[in-house]
């Protein structure tokens, strides 16, 4: 692994990744491992118990084993358990990870290290690094890289949720305003109080299988005659 200044710079790049695009974050993560540790690396996301979307960096031979490593292998195990999985001798793990161990050993890889993409209680994926037992990486550094990527991914997910919730709130408020306007119009037209007008509006929407906001908008725009809602036509 390179010096601490380069490691620190790599961690900062991962944390400061602006867009938070998952593919870009994973690409930056595995690229940092390859550049600073000289090892083949893959990263993938966890979604509903399944691990997928593998992004890889390193020589083609070892890279071919990464997909299996995120299935029945250390990468998948680390993502699902939220714990690091270190295997300094893949030859002893043939029965545990049959396909992955066979592919890795055939590519000249005899050791693997997996780290959860985890921050606090939340695990969003895993980092899987392939190499040899006599030239292993620094687990602390790779753990820092994995957590830095997790921080960025979780921050992006939280931002997306906030944006979605705000959009839903704006839509709900806009619909509420339209309904209030429609109630007032209908009350004036029918000579009833706004509570009665609302019941008439809601009853018409239910009978016709239409959203209340849609019926209110049509009334305000003049697309629906108030008399129809009042049952006079």
Description:
The chain contains ten helices and five strands; from the N terminus they run H-H-E-E-H-H-H-E-H-E-E-H-H-H-H. It has helices spanning 4-15, 22-37, 60-63, 66-69, 74-81, 98-106, 139-190, 194-207, 212-221, 226-229, and strands at residues 40-47, 50-57, 85-87, 111-119, 122-131. The protein has a five-stranded antiparallel sheet, with helices on both faces. The longest helix is centred in the C-terminal third of the chain and has 52 residues, at 139-190. The radius of gyration is 28 Å and the shape is elongated. The model has no long low-confidence stretch (mean pLDDT 82).
Q: Major sheet: size, sense and barrel closure? A: 5 strands, antiparallel
**Average of pLDDT:** 82
The radius of gyration is 28 Å
Choose one word for the global shape: elongated
Oligomer: single chain
Could you tell me the number of beta strands?
5
User: Treating each run of at least 4 consecutive H or I residues as one helix, how many helices?
Assistant: 10
Strand coverage percent: 15-25%
Task: Name the helicity range.
Answer: 55-70%
Order of helices and strands: HHEEHHHEHEEHHHH
Derived structural class? alpha+beta
State the strand order across the main sheet.
2-1-5-4-3
Low-confidence stretches: none
Distance separating the two termini: 81 Å
What's the SSE blueprint?
Elements (H helix, E strand, L loop, with lengths): L3 H12 L6 H16 L2 E8 L2 E8 L2 H4 L2 H4 L4 H8 L3 E3 L10 H9 L4 E9 L2 E10 L7 H52 L3 H14 L4 H10 L4 H4 L4
Antiparallel strand pairs: 1-2, 1-5, 3-4, 4-5
């Amino acid at each position: 692994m390179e010096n601490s200044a380069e490691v620190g710079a790599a961690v900062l790049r991962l944390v400061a990744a602006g867009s938070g695009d998952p593919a870009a974050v994973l690409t930056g993560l595995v690229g940092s491992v390859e550049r600073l540790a000289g090892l083949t690396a893959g990263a993938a996301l966890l979604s509903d118990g399944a691990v997928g979307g593998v992004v890889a960096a390193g020589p083609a031979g070892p890279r071919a084993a990464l997909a299996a490593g995120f299935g029945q292998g250390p990468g998948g195990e680390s993502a699902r358990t939220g714990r690091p999985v270190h295997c300094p001798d893949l030859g002893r793990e043939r029965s545990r990870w049959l396909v992955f161990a066979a592919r890795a050993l055939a590519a000249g890889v005899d050791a693997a290290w997996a780290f959860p993409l985890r921050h606090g209680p939340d695990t969003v994926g895993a980092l899987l690094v392939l190499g040899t037992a006599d030239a292993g990486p620094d687990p602390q550094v790779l753990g820092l890289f994995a957590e830095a990527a997790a921080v960025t991914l979780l921050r992006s997910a939280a931002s997306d949720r906030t944006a979605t919730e705000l959009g839903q709130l704006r839509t709900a408020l806009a619909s509420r305003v339209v309904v209030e306007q429609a109630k007032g119009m209908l009350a004036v037209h029918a000579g009833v109080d706004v509570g009665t007008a609302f019941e008439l509006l809601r009853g018409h929407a239910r009978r016709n299988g239409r959203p209340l906001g849609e019926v209110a908008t049509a009334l305000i725009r003049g697309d629906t005659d108030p008399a129809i809602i009042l049952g006079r036509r």
